[in-house]
Amino acid sequence: MEFVDLEKIVKKYENGATSLQEEITLRNYFTGGADVPYLQEYEYLFHYFAKAKEETYTKNIQLNPKTSKIKNLKWFSVAAAILVLFSLFIGKKQQDAAVVKEQYAHVVKTLETLSSNLKKGEQAVATLYTYKYTINKILK
Amino acid sequence: MTQSSFLKVVLPFKDRVFRLAKRLLVSKEEAEDATQELFFKLWKNKEKITDYKNVEAFAMTMTKNYCYDRLKSKQASNLRLIHTNYKEKETALDKSIEYRDSINQVHQLIENLPEQQKVIIQLRDIEQYDFDEICNMVNMKPTAVRVALSRARKTLREALIKKHNYGIR
C-alpha cells in the first residue's frame, strides 16, 4: 500500500468514516507484519481485534435447561403442601386422642370420688339400721 | 419450528453473541451463562423469530440489553468490584506470546471505555458489522454511531501512545 494512501485511510478510520472494505485492508496491512513505527499502536489494536474475533463459545447450547428445575420446584411445593396437611391431620388426631384420654381420666377420678362418698353414706345408713334394730328390740 | 432448524438459524452467530457478552460482562463464566440464557430466550420466542427480518441483529440487540440489565443488577449488589481484577486465562488471546502484553493493554483500554462505545467498537472493529446493522442493533442514528466509534478509536489510540511512550518522552 502506498504510504500516502495509508495515512489517508488511517485518518479516515480515526474519524469513523472508513468503509468495511477499507477497514479490512487496514487490518490485513497491520496484522501482516507492517513496519510503520509511528503507527505502531494500530498494529497492537488490529492484532487485538483479529485475536478477539477468534474466541469461540465452546459449550453446548441447551434449549431446555431450566424447565426441569422449575418443574421439580413445582413438585417440591406440592409435596411440601401435602406433607404439611398430613402432619396437621396426624397432629390433630393425636391431640384429639390426648383430649379424650384426659377427659376419661377426669371422669374416672370424679366417679371414684363419688363412689367413695357413697360408701361413707352407706356406712352411715348401715349404722342407722343397726340403731333402729336395737331400738326395736328394746321397745318390743 | 423444530429444534434442529432453530439451531441452524442461531448457531452461526453464537460466537458473536458470546463475544459481545464477554466484552460487556468481563468474566468468561458469566458471558457463558448469558449466552446460554439468551439462546434459551430465543428458543422460547421461536414463533416470533420468523417475523424478524434479521434474527442475528435481533439477537445482538437482545444480548446488549440483557448484559446492560445484568450490569445494573450487578452494580446494585456490588459484585462488579470482585471482577475488576479479573485476569484472562486460557483464551485464544494468550496464545500469542509476541503481542500478549500490548494486546492485554488494548483489552484493558477497551474495558475502560463507556458501555456504549464498548459495544460499538465490539460490533464494528471486532465483528465487522455493516453500519446499517449496527444502527439497527444499538438503536442509534448512523451519525451518532460514527461519532461514538470515532471517539472510541481516538481514545484507544491516544491511550496506547501514552502507554507506549511512558518514560521515554
Protein described:
The longest helix of chain A has 73 residues, at 67-139. Among the domains of chain A are: 3-52, no CATH class; 100-140. Chain A has helices at 3-14, 20-31, 40-52, 67-139. Chain A contains 4 helices and no strands. With 169 residues, chain B is mainly α. In chain B, helix 2 (14-25) packs parallel to helix 5 and helix 2 (14-25) runs antiparallel to helix 9 (115-126). The N and C termini of chain B lie far apart (62 Å). Residues 80-85 of chain B have low confidence and may be disordered. The chains are: A mainly alpha (140), B mainly alpha (169). The interface between A and B is large, with 30 and 46 residues.
Task: Sum up the structure in keywords.
heterodimer, A: 140 residues, mainly alpha, rod-shaped, B: 169 residues, Rna Polymerase Sigma Factor, Chain: A, Arc Repressor Mutant, subunit A
Order of helices and strands of chain B: HHHHHHHHHHH
Q: What is the count of β-strands of chain B?
A: 0
Fourth-tier CATH superfamily name of the largest domain in chain B: Winged helix-like DNA-binding domain superfamily/Winged helix DNA-binding domain
Give the biggest sheet of chain B.
Answer: none
> N-to-C SSE series of chain A?
HHHH
Structural class given helices, strands, pairing of chain A?
Answer: mainly alpha
Quickly describe the structure.
The complex is a heterodimer of chains A (140) and B (169). With 140 residues, chain A is mainly alpha-helical.
Set out the fold topology.
The complex is a heterodimer of chains A (140) and B (169).
Chain A: H1 3-14, H2 20-31, H3 40-52, H4 67-139
Helix pairs in contact in A: 2-3
Chain B: H1 3-10, H2 14-25, H3 28-44, H4 46-49, H5 55-76, H6 80-83, H7 92-95, H8 100-112, H9 115-126, H10 131-138, H11 142-164
Helix pairs in contact in B: 2-3, 2-5, 2-9, 3-5, 5-10, 8-11, 9-11
